[in-house]
Design goal:
The protein is of the alpha+beta class. The protein is built from five helices and eight strands.
Length: about 260
């Protein structure tokens, strides 16, 4: 169950199912065959990426039970007559090479709409109130040709402006709004330009997972541009998966790998 902000440390699993069971008393030479329905919940508290404290409560409802659980006859008592309640406390130890078990992974392909709308509002305010000369250090945003070069386009394509993300998140971190603002301003001043939005993940996790995460990051940035008035036809999402050029064993390098970059066409 996904409570978003809780699931980094607290998990709640629900389970349900049907089964077939047989009770047998060899001394009395009797057998009791029945079906059952099992349901329960398991709470989890993550102590580390490998160990979690768990508490489980389950109930088993037996149907068509003729015998008591010690095998003695209980005549005239059929139906959902046998009920067991079971509670356990224990530790889960996760094995495997991945840094984090799937129980603690939260990924959403849809952006949080409220967060995106708030971020777009912030961008709109920046576009209206911040002078263009303050967006780029020492250079105003100027889309005219300077020495036969479009300086802003080159800086965007050379990845001077990147959008960064926290681990396992697809919503940009707060200080990435400046980079989005530069690209947004360029697109508005160049209506014929189109944009590739390239999403990346670090190398933690499987290839399939990182492809999905990089796509979610690029898609969410695309949504920000669309909310700001850029036509979807001008925006192309590219899921690059894990950034293999970044060192896997360095936390700082992995932080830089979790990004979205741009290519103006």
């Amino acid at each position: 169950m996904n409570f978003e902000t809780w699931t980094n440390t607290i998990g709640l699993l629900g389970q349900a199912g049907f089964g077939v069971v047989q009770l047998e008393n060899k001394d009395l030479h009797v057998k009791d065959r029945m079906g059952n329905f099992i349901t329960g919940i398991t709470g989890q508290i993550k102590l580390s990426n490998r160990i979690a404290l768990t508490g489980d409560f389950s109930a088993i409802f037996n149907a068509l039970q003729d015998l008591t659980f010690d095998g003695a006859v209980a005549p005239g008592n059929r139906g959902f007559s046998g009920i067991l309640f079971n509670g356990t406390v224990g530790l889960n130890v996760y094995l495997g090479k991945n840094a984090k078990h799937a129980d603690w992974m939260v990924i959403s392909n849809n952006a949080d709409i409220a967060a995106l709308e708030s971020k777009v509002a912030d961008l709109e305010t920046l576009v209206k109130t911040i002078p263009e000369k303050q967006v780029i250090i020492e250079k105003p945003i100027n889309t005219t040709i300077v020495n036969d070069k479009d300086v802003v386009k080159e800086m965007i394509n050379d990845k001077y402006y990147s959008v960064y993300f926290d681990f396992n998140k697809s919503t940009p971190i707060e200080n990435s709004t400046a980079a989005i603002d530069v690209v947004l301003s360029y697109l508005r001043k160049n209506p014929s330009a189109s944009l590739d939005i390239l999403g990346y993940a670090d190398q933690v996790g499987s290839s399939e997972y990182n492809n999905k995460l990089s796509n979610a990051r690029a898609t969410n940035v695309k949504t920000i541009f669309e909310k700001a008035g850029i036509a979807s036809s001008r925006l192309n999402v590219v899921a690059e998966g894990a950034a293999t050029s970044i060192q896997k064993d360095s936390e700082e390098a992995r932080r830089l790998a979790r990004r979205v970059t741009f290519k103006v066409k």
